[in-house]
Specification:
By secondary structure, this protein is mainly α. The chain has a domain of about 30 residues. It is about 45% helix and about 0% strand. Helix 2 crosses helix 3. The longest helix has 14 residues. The protein is elongated. The N and C termini lie far apart (about 70 Å).
Length: about 70
């Protein structure tokens, strides 16, 4: 084993998956919405948080904007 290593020369490439990393956040979601995705998760076998992420990503990629109306 060496006394010192030149870290910069070991792997000069950037992580090719860095743009796909997820970031943990805190978000408030209605319990009925969570239950919907949990039910969908039970049907599909996909974790509900993954389903929420897939849906939000689809909305972002298709530039879908919510319709908001205050009653």
């Amino acid at each position: 084993m060496r006394d010192e290593y030149d870290i910069k020369s070991l792997n000069p490439r950037k992580n090719p998956y860095a743009d796909r990393l997820k970031k943990q956040i805190t978000i408030n979601i209605d319990s009925s919405t969570i239950e919907f995705f949990k039910g969908l998760a039970a049907e599909t076998g996909i974790p509900y948080q993954t389903l929420i992420n897939l849906y939000l990503r689809d909305c972002a990629e298709s530039h879908k904007k919510p319709t908001v109306s205050w009653s």
